Amino acid sequence: MPTSPTHAAPRKRPLPNTQEWPPLPGTSAYMARQLAQDTATVRQIVTVLQNCAQQITPLVAQLYFTQGPLTVLDCAPTLRALADDIAHDDPQTLTELAAELTRAG
Predict the structure, then answer these.
(1) According to DSSP H, which parts of 62-74 are helical?
(2) Where on the tree of life does the source sit, at the highest rank (predicted)?
(3) CA-CA distance, 27 to 33, in Å (whole number)?
């Protein structure tokens, strides 16, 4: 049964735009997002280094010949120190870099 022009179907309302658009490159919002992403990645790297040091420690403890100048003896302490340096220094450095780029932009 054909509909007459006076009985047209009601118009559907458009759905609200719920999509978040990424901030434009060079804006302070963009720099803030990049800073958050880089900081999260640095935290992941710190965790990987710490886990690696934990895995190496018992392996090194199994070694019998530890009196010689074996580089392997320094692996776990070096990884822990590197993880500590990264965790302490890099987030601040990233913040400073983001601030510089925001001022320059």
Answers:
(1) none
(2) Bacteria
(3) 10
Look at residue 26 and give its three-state secondary structure.
coil
**Is the distance from CB of 91 to CB of 39 less than 8 angstroms?**
yes
DSSP conformation class of 9: P
- How far is it between the farthest Cα atoms of the chain? 97
State residue 91's pLDDT score. Answer: 96
Structure tokens at 49: 């280094």
- Digit-coded pLDDT (tens) for 91-105: 999 999 999 888 876
Number of DSSP helices (H) and strands (E) in the chain, helices first: 2, 0
Write the pLDDT tens digit of every residue in 49-64: 999 999 999 999 999 9
Structure tokens at 43: 């935290």
Q: Which one-letter amino acid corresponds to residue 57?
A: T
